[in-house]
Amino acid sequence: MPSTRILMVCLGNICRSPLAEGVLRSMLDKDFFEVDSAETAGYHIGQAPDNRSILVAKKYGIDISSLKGRIFTPEDFDKFDYIFVMDKSNYKDILSLAKSEKQREKVSFLLDTLDYPMEMKELPDPYYGSEKDFIFTYLEIKKACKEIARKLQL
Ligand code: 4NP
Description:
The protein has one domain: Response regulator (Rossmann fold, 3-Layer(aba) Sandwich), CATH 3.40.50.2300. Helices cover 39% and strands 14% of the residues. The chain is built from six helices and four strands; from the N terminus they run E-H-E-H-H-E-H-H-E-H. The protein has helices at residues 16-27, 51-59, 76-79, 88-95, 101-105, 131-152; strands spanning 4-10, 33-39, 82-85, 107-109. The protein has a four-stranded parallel beta sheet with strand order 2-1-3-4, sandwiched between helices. The longest helix is centred in the last third of the chain and has 22 residues, at 131-152. The protein is globular and about 40 Å long. The relative contact order is 0.20. Bound molecules: 4-nitrophenyl phosphate. 4-nitrophenyl phosphate is lined by residues 10-16, 43, 125, 127.
């Protein structure tokens, strides 16, 4: 039974957060860690990730094609130990559902795990972008997840 649970959150749960879910999961032992992702918007419930995210993950050896979009719920604050958001709008939406300081403290910016503690460094949405933007997104996610995995396994 996993003892540490991590949730990745973005607006649509089809571009950034499924990539972050797949990348972090690939770095952790599934006997000890559970990784999931969710959207704030509710646009893509039950849908597979965006094809461009599936392809960029595949290019780097990770299969996210079977993931399904789901919406963030207030119960996620109880289930998960760490909740990573991609940008300020996700942060605002999630915090508006938090009921305590303990819940608020679980939420941080994915990229703040790199060199930006408390800076609210955003990972831009690649949805309206090109393949290059998806590769940039993947590489940023990979750097951040490597750092998260390192800290979780200290
Ligand atoms: P994501 O990107 O939040 O990284 O999954 C988006 C995906 C879909 C939409 C917006 C952002 N949308 O407007 O449908």
